[in-house]
Amino acid sequence: MQSEIIKRTVELFNSEEIVRAIGWRKGDFDYDLNPSIFKSSEDLEKNFVYNDFSSANLSKFLIKISQKEDGKTLVFLKSCDTYSFNSLLQEHRISRDKIYIIGVPCEENLDPSKIKAALGEDVLSMSCDGETVTVETLDGTKTISKSEVILDRCLACKSRKHVVYDELFGEEGEVLDSKRFDQVEILENMKPEERYSFWRTELSRCIGCNACRDICPACTCEKCVFDNRDSGVENKVATNDFEENMFHIIRAFHVAGRCTDCGECSRVCPEDIPLHLLNRKFIKDINEFYGNYQAGDDIETLAPLTRFDAVDVEPSIVKTRENVK
Amino acid sequence: MQKIGVFVCHCGTNISATVDVAKVAETLAKEPGVIYSTDYQFMCSLAGQNLIIDKIKELDLTGVVICSCSPRMHELTFRKAADKAGLNGFLLEMANIREQDAWVHKDREEATLKAVALGRAAIAKVALNEALIPGESKVTKRALVIGAGIAGMQAALDIADAGFSVDLVDIEPTIGGLMTQVDKTFPTLDCASCILTPKMVDVQQHELINLMTFCEVEKVEGYIGNFIATIKKKARYVDPDACTGCGLCTQKCPTKNVLNSFNLNLDNRSAIYIPFPQAVPLVAIIDAAHCKKLQEGKCGVCAAVCAPKAIHYDDCDKLVENKYGAIVVATGFNPIEVHAFNEFAYDQSPNVITSLEYERLMSATGPNGGTVLRPSDKKHPKTIVFQQCVGSRDTTSRGKTYCSGICCMYTAKHAMLTREKYPDTDVYVFYTDIRTPGKGFDEFHRRAVEQYGVHYIKGSIGKVVPMSNGNLKVQASDLLMQRQLHIEADLVVLAAAMEPDKSAKHLAQQLTASMDNDGWFTESHPKLRPVESPTAGVFLAGACQGPKDIPSTVAQAGAAASKAIILLIKDKLKGNPCVAHSAENMCNGCGACANVCPYSAITYVEKEFRMPDRTTLIRRVASVNPAVCQGCGACTVACPSGAMDIFGFSNKQIMGEVDAICQ
Question: Which residues on A lie below 8 Å from B220 (Cβ)?
Fold first, then answer.
């Protein structure tokens, strides 16, 4: 697949259809890929990688780049990334006409942390051949079944469908019945004190690195409220444990109704905090209150939380939730 | 440096009975920025206001906090006082320690603590307040009255009599509304036409009233003093200026079997018709759905016989746009459809009719020229059963939960008139409760029972079974005597509930005027602002606001007109300076604010920004039209970056209040 993608992209470079491509670049380790800009076909042929570790969602990088006037930018999007792309398009954050999308097929991505946890830290290289992951370590070659080391977010994959693309590699996928709200339900069924203690345990590990915010394709504000002295939240971080308690909750509120559930926040978290569960709780609530809604499904449907419908003058469209625990 | 003055009001004993006002004043005196704090018996009195004015001048206060009642009550009073003392009124805040504290708590200690917390919040906010100056806008000296029933006509006449131009719009080809179909009016039993038609002529002849019949309000934009309405003039196919209303076309029209909606389909009319002989304007109209010429292209009789050449088959809908300073809504009501009430067999027998249909049967302009004949075989009915509360006070999904208010009276009227005209007729009325609270109303009802011998029975019809001879087997229960009744009736009359006219909903959306769950327009305050809609510049007349009889409708129409006149007589209006604004450097241009703005006050502009690396960047940012913005704040909560903010209620001010309360 990687060589086919490179071949086609080189063609596009040569025909001057595109002036740059955003993709995954070889890192220090072959399981550690970097989202990167390729400015020439030579660079791409040499350093572009598409494999089971090409997890990064590249859509957010388009915000700045699509404002460049010099020509089209090519971007590789997996199915879940296309939802983020649509969401950004809907919020006028990117210019569609400056972008050429190659949809790349996605089987489940692998989680290097899980592999290391199972087989030890001294990993030299990892590769996956269908169902088996082969890992070279200092202690020799080891293998593990792929199903044991799949990224959490891919285990609850919501869709294999590319909702937007110019060109698609592989077959058109389908929306899946992901059962992604099962974990939310477990949390909902906890007693309040259990749930509080769950989140305290998780959130207390936060080191305030902002990786979740910086990677999030819904967090695209020109100036983030947490960096804004006038917002009234920025200066509270130093005075108490506010950040730890509230940062993630405020962030979840800010992306509520806009989060596509791409799962990047949890993937990049160095402390493995399951941040996506906060967002998923919002998605579940929104679905229950206002009917099913998938952010990024298309660019026409307005999000339930930012929709003013003329027919709901009063009474309001808010429904009561059934089976409130 | 902040120099804040705090004034704590006793409100007689309204506040001081539950809140230790002296202690509140004493505690708030220690808050940062406060240099003066006192309590006083009535802050809103002249002496109280003078105290504020004197202290502002004496101590050169930069902000004032009044701990008293709701800002809805006296904010304007105190702002004016501050302005008088030379302090911008928007540098004054009110802490509501009456409605939100003294009135809802019993424990003095706790209520006092709460008063302090509320005072603290107001102090924290006022420290962040900025002086605001309201903008001004001109007033278009023209009113739009929507609906030309008795309410709309009265409002239009009153406004026009005050010297302002009025456009009076109605969806029907004639003005007059539902009252044109009524035979007699309670409690005086004078003929409805005799009091209505002269008013219709007055409206037509008033030089300041522009009649727009067969027109529909499509779109309303703008704001108080400056509304822009798009009105659809529906195709009438007859030039109203040329038509003399001679009626020759209606006689010659070959299509004579069209159901006559004016008589509620109890008889037929021609495809070209004049709604009724007293219609205003007295002009024919072609019913396009039934006209042979318009449907099949063959015929053209009406054009051939029309001497003034008023018929134009190529007529089409036209849109006109006009500016108005004030809008009066008078869309009225309609009886509900009774098909869902199967037990009364309305759909099975033509002899089961609604009260309005009975009204037509009794009317001299009705299908039988005023003789009551039952629809199936045109026989005189000898036994008539009236059923009240059909769909009123009904908690099932078929009906309405409210009382329609007028059915007790008009049913008494029907019963009485029937017994008067046909003394050999037996009249039964089944009622839930009799509700006759108007002037002379109960006496009227008692006359029906005592003088006219109408059989009033508390209870309800359980089932109506039509028989082959047209008679109706009525099975009913008498709740007082606790027995079942079996009556063989000739006619059953159903007092159907009132519901808002169908056009009201679309109009409410256009006006951003709020409605209650039943679709009635809501007033700004149920007691103190009963004819004003919460949308500034929109006034409510008649039954569009709730079930009403004719006297109340006319009274309310007059009140709505006077409110409209008060607005139109002004040359300029002061705007509300507490409107939204967008911090462009923070705005992402995502569109969330415009999506939620109910007033369409937000648009987007492309703006050039200087970037840190000396390049420029063109970005899409939100821009608020302060004249259209009502300051509702929906945009500020929708904005993810916090770029959208409201003057006078900024995010920072509100956070300040919250922090002060959480101290």
Answer: none
